Amino acid sequence: MIDLHVEAPEVEAGSPVRVLLRVAPGFEKRLGTLRFSIGWRTEGAGGVDDATVFETQVALKGDSCRVDLPTPPAGPLSFDGKLVRILWEVSASSIDREGLLFGQAVKARFRLLPRKVRV
Amino acid sequence: MGKPSDDLGDELPKPKPARRSRFRSMQLRNLGYPPQTDLVGRLDRVSRRKPREGPEGLTLRDTQTAWSWPKFLIGAVLALAWNAGTWTVVSMALRFPRPAAAPHGEGGSSGLICAFSILIFAVLIGIGALLELARWTRNAWKLQPARLVLPRWPLRLGESVRVTYHRPFRRDVVHPGELRARLVCMELVFYWEGTERQSTSAPVWDEELPLLAVPAGSDGAHAEWVLRIPPEGAPSFRARSNRILWGLEILLRVPGAVTGHSTFALQVAPEVVA
């Protein structure tokens, strides 16, 4: 029904992530607004840490929309270690006309890379 | 030397050259450093410290292994109290007559052996505590807190920085010594096992820096190293249950005179130098 796609799967910290959301034909009439959020979480041997760093709501016009979501320059960066992984995700969920969440959130992963600096 | 006569030797595949990467999945090598758990614990404790601007530049101080009166007094009181209690029990046990043997010779002697074993164990712990206190006092008293001078803060991935280490002695040391140092990056995670919070760690990066000499008669250990933060490394990270910690561990050894180690937590920013 809803397809979420990150246009560039690797993004430098501090640069926006561009996501494209498409809904099945005819389904867009049921959706009032879409809530996009971007955040990270850990996976591995330790307890789970997570944070949502940005959230926005977008009114859907037509059967697709393209949104730029900011990433924090301070990270944390994506990491794949022996004990812990740090994963970044964009999540989109739909809000009905009454402002309630309905259906399952769709998620798409991307990698947050270090910002390049010149010296 | 001639060519090996064994024909099979030519058919064997050549060993692959060692990989340049220092990312390791093994435990940190022990070259006289304290155990990995100590290193991670110390790194975690000091990981929020920031350097202070001083006359030499940005300076980090390590006071964990330096002399401190509260540490000495707590250690001395605990060691003396343990020994006082143990020796009181020993003197009482020697003064009182041996209890009469149980009827039919059962139980009495085995109970006595068990009590004496526990007493001997307690005496050994007491002696060990006094020796450790003496060793720590001897080391810590001779050394002043260590300082690490950095050119910038935080550090960045892919960059090389020249750092300077100073550890003044309270008195000149007549013997020559050596300074070992290693740049480490550790993963540290916390998890719950029942009602107890446990932790485990793994090395991500372990790079031994050049071994430097401490000349005889010097007033302290002074050294300069170039730290190269790998561009493919991970920046520092600190959350409730998961951490990535960078640090510099330095081991000072002057045989017969002094041994001291210092741990400095380094902050690595999520930036890579192009």
Topology:
The complex is a heterodimer of chains A (119) and B (274).
Chain A: E1 2-6, E2 10-12, E3 17-23, E4 33-44, E5 50-59, E6 64-69, E7 79-80, E8 84-95, E9 101-113, E10 115-117
Chain B: H1 8-11, H2 36-46, E1 52-54, E2 57-62, H3 69-95, H4 108-142, E3 146-150, E4 155-157, E5 160-168, E6 177-193, E7 196-208, E8 212-214, E9 220-228, E10 237-238, E11 242-254, E12 258-266, E13 268-273
Parallel strand pairs in B: 4-13
Antiparallel strand pairs in B: 1-2, 2-3, 3-5, 5-9, 6-7, 6-8, 6-11, 10-11, 11-12
Instruction: Give the number of DSSP strands of chain A.
Output: 10
Q: Which residues of chain A form runs of ≥5 with pLDDT under 50?
A: none
Helix content bin of chain B? 25-40%
Could you say which overall geometry of chain B the principal axes of the C-alpha atoms support? globular
Give Rg of chain A in angstroms. Answer: 16 Å
Largest sheet of chain B: 6 strands, antiparallel
* Beta-strand content bin of chain A: over 45%
Order of helices and strands of chain A: EEEEEEEEEE
Assign the structural class of chain B, choosing from mainly alpha, mainly beta, alpha/beta, alpha+beta, or little secondary structure.
Answer: alpha+beta
Largest sheet of chain A: 6 strands, mixed
Mean pLDDT of chain B: 81
Quaternary structure: heterodimer
Compute the separation of the termini of chain B in Å: 48 Å
How many helical elements of chain A?
0
The poorly predicted ranges of chain B are 1-26
Number of helices of chain B: 4
Radius of gyration of chain B: 26 Å
Overview of the molecule:
The complex is a heterodimer of chains A (119) and B (274). Chain A is an all-beta fold and 119 residues long. Chain A is 0% helix and 61% strand. Chain A has no helices and ten strands. In chain A, strands 2, 4, 5, 7, 8 and 9 form a six-stranded mixed beta sheet that branches. In chain A, strands 1-3-6 form a three-stranded antiparallel beta sheet, with no helix packed on it. In chain A, strand 7 and strand 8 form a beta hairpin. Chain A is globular. The N and C termini of chain A lie far apart (48 Å). The model of chain A has no long low-confidence stretch (mean pLDDT 86). Chain B is an alpha+beta fold and 274 residues long. In chain B, 28% of the residues lie in helices and 36% in strands. In chain B, the strands form three sheets. In chain B, strands 6, 7, 8, 10, 11 and 12 form a six-stranded antiparallel beta sheet that branches. In chain B, strands 1-2-3-5-9 form a five-stranded antiparallel beta sheet, with no helix packed on it. In chain B, strands 4-13 form a two-stranded parallel sheet. Chain B is globular. The N terminus of chain B is likely disordered. Chains A and B meet through strand 10 of A and strand 6, strand 7 and strand 13 of B.
